[in-house]
Every structure is written in structure tokens, then in C-alpha cells.
Amino acid sequence: QQQEVIDELKNRLTSAPILTHPQDNVGFVLYTDASHFAFCAILSQSDNNGLKDVVEYASRSTKPVEQKYIIIELECTTIVWAVKKFHQYLYRFQFTIVTDHMALTYLNNMANLTSRM
User: Fold this and answer.
1) Which residues form the Reverse transcriptase/retrotransposon-derived protein RNase H-like domain (predicted)?
2) Is 29 part of any domain?
């Protein structure tokens, strides 16, 4: 069963349409994730059926100084990097950021933020 899922994923990532053109009348969803090794982001929009269409993928390796960050700083830095990366799409529209790091939802309430956050 796992092999079937891997094969299906490979098929979907290599079959048309891999990417879609952005639509002006649809909001964007920006997915981000971070590790001590890399940042990644996916910019997407919903199609007419409510499914997410990928507009663009982005990733980069972390810099040596970033590898020393704690995970909340990495996740926050990834969001800033991704918003800057996709600025040409996002600056005119409302968009949603989706991250798997729950601590980021409490940033507004945290008292001791570092300068990186």
C-alpha cells in the first residue's frame, strides 16, 4: 500500500498539469515548512471543485547560521522567506498561511520574542 501511494505521488508530480497559472479572482494559500536543513513552500489556489492547484514550489537549504535557530525561529523565518519569494503573487491579494508549527499561532501573545521573530 505504501508503494502504491509513492507511485501515485510520483505520477501526480510528473504529470500535467504540474503547475497552474494564478487566477486573479481566487485567494492564495501559502504552505510552509522548515527543518534545520531546508525551507520549503508551496503556493496554491483552489480550483472550481475546491481542490488545491499548485502555482509554484520553492525550497532552499538553510544557511549555517540558520541551522542554529530553534524550531519556532526556523518556522517564522521560513514564512518570511516564502512571502518575500512569492511577493509578486501575494502583494495584491489576501492570502492564508498554513504551517504545521502550532507555536506560531501564539506569537501575538508571547512576551519574550527574539529579534528574529
Assistant:
1) 1-97
2) yes
